């Protein structure tokens, strides 16, 4: 009997390995198949640059939703990045070693909580507070930013922790040997050295925030208008897709797929930027 | 001649490691291979059981004939070859399983591939015991055959690796510096085992320790920088070598 | 020098406060949900069928739907994920194909769940005519968790020492034998982690599920039946204000499930690691 069927196994496994790429191609194919004809019919300018979204009247401008997504995403970054990075710096540089073993599971738990639960808490707890303190409907960009910020916190924190851990100890030791306090060493040397990793974490956090749907639907208010203030109700790109998909037909439905394309493009760009930042990390400052 | 190597050249990614070696290995004898680090002794050994080709970019030319058949011929399956040519590595590497399963690993797979007839449990037990005895390990582990091989001491682990190799009933056993890092008692046990084993097997032993070669091998080959400098009866190599480089090495002037 | 020491103290205090705040948020969420939701968890709630459009009765079909859907998705994705990981680490070196596979996997990992929902709807539900069904939902979820499984499996497989593979091959084992008997059994802890991560994600997933598995609140009888998962049910309850108490109850079950998956992961990891060291 022969030694083996390794060649056969290899071919089979190669085929299996292509599944992921295949799925990606099929997904891209179908999303574009449904969305591209719309773009040709209505025109990219009318789609991206108009804030007039009234499908009944044949108007498909998503500018207000683009703006809303951007406001909400940057808001989330303002909430999630400082908390995530501060936590990461504290855990990596200043905390007693036992603490990480206790904090890590807690943050993993946070990462595992379903987005609908976050949204619900936002509605029941945050929105009333915002309504009472600042006026407006409560269900607002501010509420969405806070909720999303908390949701992307684990991502940013864990990537930041990795980025800080990758800084060689000699950097810290060198600074300390020159008489710096630990905080000065961190501020002037470590953070700079880890900066591309930290940036990558922030960018990836942004990518997740911009793609989030359920929580945003529940707390952002979903009004179709250009936002003026953080207390405004707003509808993001993702919310629009999810809310109208249930009953959209024909050109309207294609418009939603085109929105999906826009979303995908933005996220791919963000992921590419993050990957580039992570690659730069190896080359140091 | 059990093994006849003719014009063997091995290169990795263009860099030549073995520059043309022609060497015979007699059956049921121990051939010791000595030489300084970087002489490609290990590469030569691994050319005999086609383990070099596991490294990407390896090119092998020439022929290695075992019982007159070139093992590098196109139709030959390396997997089958490795059942005939066993290897003990420099670092003791027990597999993460029980002592019994370690020794039985190869035979069980051979049965599965129908390379050997089915073994009953009793036959397998007998085989494992026989191999552990031949490796001078049986007495120390007979009561704990199902404990993990990782729990043994270094010397015991290496003897376990020897037993594991013997379980395949190979024709040729290759040992790559098997005693480096082992205490003298374990080393002595392994050398003792080799003396007995050569009655049934053909053995090629690579060693950095010239004294071990002097003790354990019938014939000795001296490698230098990927070339065979000299080969002959061990006594001659160590007392009256023909090549000056050999003499310098065995007397310790370099190495 | 006093100034520097002082400013360090302030900085560290601020950092510590941020960390505590993050932990406080986690604690708050869990306490908030459980405090209001645990009282709802009666045997009837967990095992009973819904009555009156979900205003009364239990959520048993949703619980069943959630776990059947998640396990199906993982069942589909796991062989594909482990197979891909085995191929990438054992059977090939870095080539154009492997780079393409990794790129594809990374891209897939970045796609937001609403897009998966869109795709699943247009491909599985409509084009392949599966309708809103368990199978459409499971296939969609499977693609979503595939990148995670590939990544964690590959990490786990690469952690297995190369010397073990070498030894296995030297006694006449084929590569596939080595994978089956040496590599995979020892990569199991890492693979299990990936499975648990995927399970947790599937339990909470809403956007992709609602457009593919639908929201039928009946117990599924076959793979072409629509199901409602707990997350979807919770969303419906919350949006339509049907019953706040039932919503909290469902949320509590969701949070407890995530907690259980996390705890189970740590426990399994400890068990598996201890067993290897024996």
Topology (elements, then pairings):
The complex is a heterotrimer of chains A (about 280), B (about 260) and C (about 280).
Chain A: H1 6-17, H2 19-42, H3 44-49, E1 53-54, E2 59-60, H4 63-94, H5 98-112, H6 115-134, H7 141-165, H8 169-177, H9 182-193, H10 195-211, H11 214-219, H12 237-245, H13 250-281
Antiparallel strand pairs in A: 1-2
Chain B: E1 3-12, E2 15-25, E3 30-34, H1 41-48, E4 58-66, E5 69-70, H2 78-84, E6 85-88, H3 99-112, H4 121-134, H5 138-141, H6 154-166, E7 172-176, H7 184-197, E8 202-206, H8 210-216, E9 219-224, E10 227-233, H9 234-239, H10 244-250
Parallel strand pairs in B: 3-8, 3-9, 6-7, 7-8
Antiparallel strand pairs in B: 1-2, 1-4, 4-5, 9-10
Helix pairs in contact in B: 3-4, 3-6, 4-6
Chain C: H1 2-37, H2 43-47, E1 50-51, E2 56-57, H3 60-90, H4 96-110, H5 113-127, H6 134-158, H7 162-170, H8 175-204, H9 207-210, H10 230-240, H11 244-277
Antiparallel strand pairs in C: 1-2
Helix pairs in contact in C: 1-11, 3-6, 3-8, 4-6, 5-6, 6-8, 7-8, 8-11, 10-11
Beta-strand residue fraction of chain C = under 5%
Lateral strand order in the biggest sheet of chain C? 1-2
Biggest interface goes to: A-C, 82 and 83 residues
What is the CATH architecture descriptor of chain A?
Orthogonal Bundle
Radius of gyration of chain A: 23 Å
Relevant CATH superfamily of the largest domain in chain C: MetI-like
Number of domains of chain C: 2
Q: Which fold name fills CATH's third level, the topology of the largest domain in chain C? A: MetI-like fold
- Annotation, overall tally of beta strands of chain C: 2
Regions with little confidence, pLDDT below 50 for 5+ residues of chain A: none
Largest sheet report of chain A:
2 strands, antiparallel
Give the CATH architecture of the largest domain in chain C. Orthogonal Bundle
Report on the architecture of this protein.
The complex is a heterotrimer of chains A (285), B (255) and C (278). Chain A is mainly α. Chain A has a single domain, classed as MetI-like (MetI-like fold), CATH 1.10.3720.10. Chain A has helices at 6-17, 19-42, 44-49, 63-94, 98-112, 115-134, 141-165, 169-177, 182-193, 195-211, 214-219, 237-245, 250-281, and strands at residues 53-54, 59-60. In chain A, helix 4 crosses helix 7 (141-165) and helix 4 crosses helix 10 (195-211). Helices cover 37% and strands 25% of the residues of chain B. In chain B, a hairpin with a 2-residue loop joins strand 4 and strand 5. The relative contact order of chain B is 0.18. The mean pLDDT of chain C is 90. Chain C has a two-stranded antiparallel sheet. In chain C, a hairpin with a 4-residue loop joins strand 1 and strand 2 (56-57). Chain C contains eleven helices and two strands.
């Amino acid at each position: 009997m022969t030694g083996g069927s390794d060649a056969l196994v290899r071919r089979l496994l190669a085929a299996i390995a292509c599944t992921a790429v295949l799925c990606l191609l099929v997904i891209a194919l179908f999303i574009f198949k449904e969305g591209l004809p719309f773009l040709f019919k209505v025109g990219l300018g009318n789609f991206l640059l108009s804030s007039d979204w009234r499908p009944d009247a044949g108007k498909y401008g998503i500018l207000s939703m683009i703006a809303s997504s951007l406001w909400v995403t940057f808001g989330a970054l303002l909430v999630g990045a400082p908390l995530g990075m501060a936590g990461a710096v504290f855990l990596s540089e200043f905390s007693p070693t036992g603490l990480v073993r206790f904090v890590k599971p807690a943050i993993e738990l946070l990462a595992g909580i379903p987005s609908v639960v976050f949204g619900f808490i936002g509605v029941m707890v945050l929105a009333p507070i915002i309504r009472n303190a600042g006026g407006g409907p409560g269900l607002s960009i501010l509420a969405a930013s806070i909720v999303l910020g908390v949701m992307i916190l684990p991502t940013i924190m864990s990537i930041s922790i990795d980025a800080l851990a990758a800084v060689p100890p000699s950097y810290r030791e060198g600074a300390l040997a020159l008489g710096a306090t630990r905080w000065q060493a961190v501020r002037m040397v470590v953070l700079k050295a880890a900066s591309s990793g930290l940036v990558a974490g922030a960018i990836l956090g942004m990518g997740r925030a911009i793609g989030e749907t359920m929580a945003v639907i529940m707390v952002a208010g979903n009004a179709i208008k250009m936002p003026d203030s953080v207390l405004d109700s707003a509808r993001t790109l993702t919310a629009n897709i999810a809310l109208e998909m249930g009953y959209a037909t024909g050109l309207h439905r294609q418009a939603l797929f085109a929105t999906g394309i826009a979303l995908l493009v933005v996220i791919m760009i963000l992921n590419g930027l993050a990957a580039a930042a992570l690659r730069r990390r190896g080359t140091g400052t | 001649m059990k093994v006849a190597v003719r014009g063997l050249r091995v290169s990795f990614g263009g860099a030549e490691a073995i520059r043309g070696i022609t060497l015979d290995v007699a059956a049921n004898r121990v051939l010791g291979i000595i030489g300084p680090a970087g002489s490609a002794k290990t590469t030569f050994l691994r050319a005999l059981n086609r383990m070099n080709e596991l490294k990407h970019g390896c090119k092998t030319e020439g022929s290695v004939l075992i019982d007159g058949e070139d093992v590098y011929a196109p139709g030959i399956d390396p997997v089958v070859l490795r059942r005939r040519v066993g290897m003990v590595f420099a670092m003791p590497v027990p597999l993460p399983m029980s002592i019994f399963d370690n020794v039985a690993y190869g035979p069980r797979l051979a049965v599965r591939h129908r390379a050997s007839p089915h073994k009953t449990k009793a036959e397998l037990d007998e085989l494992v015991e026989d191999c552990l005895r031949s490796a001078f390990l049986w007495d120390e582990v007979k009561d704990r055959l199902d404990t993990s091989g990782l729990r043994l001491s270094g010397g015991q682990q290496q003897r376990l690796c020897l037993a594991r190799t013997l379980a395949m009933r190979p024709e040729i056993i290759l040992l790559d510096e098997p005693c480096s890092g082992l205490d003298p008692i374990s080393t002595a046990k392994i050398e003792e085992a080799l003396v007995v084993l050569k009655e049934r097997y053909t053995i090629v032993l690579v060693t950095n320790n010239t004294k071990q070669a002097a003790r354990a091998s019938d014939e000795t080959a001296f490698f230098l920088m990927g070339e065979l400098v000299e080969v002959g009866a061990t006594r001659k190599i160590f007392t009256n070598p023909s090549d000056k480089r050999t003499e310098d090495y065995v007397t310790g002037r370099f190495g | 020098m006093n100034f520097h020491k002082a400013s360090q103290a302030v900085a560290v205090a601020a950092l510590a406060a941020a960390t505590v705040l993050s932990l406080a948020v986690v604690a708050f969420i869990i306490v908030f949900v459980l405090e209001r939701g645990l009282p709802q968890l009666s045997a009837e709630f967990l095992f009973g069928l819904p009555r009156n459009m979900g205003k009364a009765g239990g959520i048993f079909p949703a619980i069943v739907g959630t776990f059947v859907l998640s396990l199906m998705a993982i069942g589909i994705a796991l062989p594909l994920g482990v197979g891909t990981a085995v191929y990438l680490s054992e059977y090939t070196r870095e080539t154009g194909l492997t780079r393409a596979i990794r790129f594809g996997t990374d891209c897939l990992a970045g796609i937001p769940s609403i897009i998966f929902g869109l795709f699943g709807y247009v491909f599985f539900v409509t084009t392949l005519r599966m309708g809103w069904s368990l199978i459409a939902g499971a296939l969609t979820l499977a693609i979503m968790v595939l990148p995670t499984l590939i990544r964690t499996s590959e990490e786990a497989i690469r952690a297995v020492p190369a010397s073990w593979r070498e030894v296995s091959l030297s006694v006449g084992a084929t590569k596939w034998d080595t994978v089956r008997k040496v590599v995979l059994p020892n990569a199991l802890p890492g693979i299990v982690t990936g499975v648990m991560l995927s399970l947790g994600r599937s339990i909470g997933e809403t956007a992709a599920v609602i457009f593919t598995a639908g929201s039928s609140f009946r117990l599924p009888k076959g793979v072409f039946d629509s199901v409602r998962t707990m997350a979807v049910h919770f969303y419906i309850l919350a949006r339509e204000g049907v019953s706040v108490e039932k919503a909290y109850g469902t949320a509590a079950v969701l949070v407890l499930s995530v907690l259980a998956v996390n705890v189970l992961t740590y426990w399994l990891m400890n068990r598996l690691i201890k067993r290897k060291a024996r």
